[in-house]
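Q: Please design a sequence for this.
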């Protein structure tokens, strides 16, 4: 019997899932991996079944949303732990064994999250969150959290007053990587299916706390190519996201003081509209200023020739230069000199090695685009495109 069942919900992201599954198998080879496809209609099911015959692929006949799909797959989980994992993620080799060891040693913990970072190495604030009570939500939506990030009162939403490199108790575990006890999740009935795509992780985390368990954060790394399955410039994104917050609020805090409750609901509507407008302005600005970035490939000479050809067809990359590395020892510190993107050969480097370099480089204030090339798939994956 596997120790961990990994559940991945798929929707038109087969090449990101391919990379995600590869990283899971490197991290925990005996994991039970279940991919449930939400009617992608792009050949994802057939492709994944042929690419990974050892995993279970469930073809959902309709796009039933994140929570419902996870609940269907949960019925097939055999591990004592279950990991709900986004398809646009990559886990480090040490991440899943570290989670198993921590949960084995801490039976009072119901779920845990990890240190998520984006494709440019930046720390993802949603790695650690508090329950969005009306008061916490007000501090966040009013901007007080951004003005006073080190305040325990105003910075509670993303717990920005805590050291991101230290493990600590948290209240909300992100659905992008939610590692939990299978029996606890089942006893709680899984995800609340009234949420379609957002908010269900907050709801389940809160119910785990109310059941008497703790939630925890470990600074073990993953990369989250955030939003690959979502068109964030659409009004539907803004509506679904803030409607989910409204569902959570009505479910758990309907008895809160009416005046304050109405004020928070008004803020939710304002944030819904401002998010839509802001995302579209940013998207248009990026389209106006986008220029192809020069890139650097770090890895083997044999794979460099393949990467060069892929970069020629890229909408975002150009002029692939090369540093040869024959073993997973270290990534040269000068990788970013004069470069806008760094492409790593995962035949040479472990995912964890790449993530640590990314995280440390972003922490030093340098910005870049990260790409991963795997010769087994023949694809180069970045946050912007798959080649």
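A: Design:
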């Amino acid at each position: 019997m596997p120790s961990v069942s990994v559940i991945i919900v798929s929707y038109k992201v087969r090449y990101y899932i391919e990379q995600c599954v590869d990283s899971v198998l490197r991290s925990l080879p005996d994991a039970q991996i279940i991919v449930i496809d939400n009617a992608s209609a792009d050949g994802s099911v057939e492709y994944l079944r042929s690419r990974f015959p050892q995993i279970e692929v469930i073809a959902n006949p309709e796009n039933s949303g994140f929570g419902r799909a996870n609940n269907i797959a949960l019925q097939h989980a055999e591990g004592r732990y279950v990991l709900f994992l986004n398809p646009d993620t990559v886990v480090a080799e040490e991440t899943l064994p570290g989670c198993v060891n921590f949960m084995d040693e801490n039976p009072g913990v119901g779920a845990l999250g990890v240190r998520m970072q984006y494709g440019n190495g930046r720390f993802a604030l949603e790695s650690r969150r508090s329950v969005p009570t009306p008061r916490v939500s007000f501090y966040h939506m009013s901007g007080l959290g951004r003005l006073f990030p080190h305040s325990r009162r105003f910075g509670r939403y993303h717990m920005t007053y805590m050291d991101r490199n230290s493990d600590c108790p948290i209240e909300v575990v992100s659905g992008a990587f939610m590692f939990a006890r299978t029996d606890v999740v089942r006893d709680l009935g899984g995800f609340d299916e009234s949420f379609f795509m957002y908010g269900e992780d907050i709801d389940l985390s809160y119910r785990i706390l109310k059941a008497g368990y703790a939630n925890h954060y470990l600074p073990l790394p993953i990369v989250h190519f955030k939003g690959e399955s979502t068109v964030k410039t659409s009004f539907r994104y803004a509506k679904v996201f803030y409607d989910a917050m409204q569902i959570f609020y009505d479910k758990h805090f309907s008895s809160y003081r009416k005046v304050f409750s109405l004020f928070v609901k008004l803020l939710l509507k304002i944030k819904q509209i401002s998010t839509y407008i802001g995302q579209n302005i940013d998207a248009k600005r990026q389209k106006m200023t986008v220029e192809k970035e020069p890139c650097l490939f770090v890895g083997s000479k044999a794979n460099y020739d393949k990467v060069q050809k892929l970069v020629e067809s890229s909408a975002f990359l150009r002029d692939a230069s090369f540093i040869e590395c024959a073993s997973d020892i270290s990534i040269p510190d000068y990788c970013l000199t004069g470069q806008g993107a760094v492409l790593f050969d995962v035949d040479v480097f472990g995912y964890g090695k790449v993530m640590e370099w990314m995280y440390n480089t972003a922490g030093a204030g340098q910005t870049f685009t990260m790409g991963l090339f795997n010769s087994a798939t023949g694809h180069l994956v970045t946050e912007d495109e798959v080649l």
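Q: Thanks. Anything notable?
A: Residues 228-235, 280-289 have pLDDT under 50 and may be disordered. The two ends are 37 Å apart (CA to CA).
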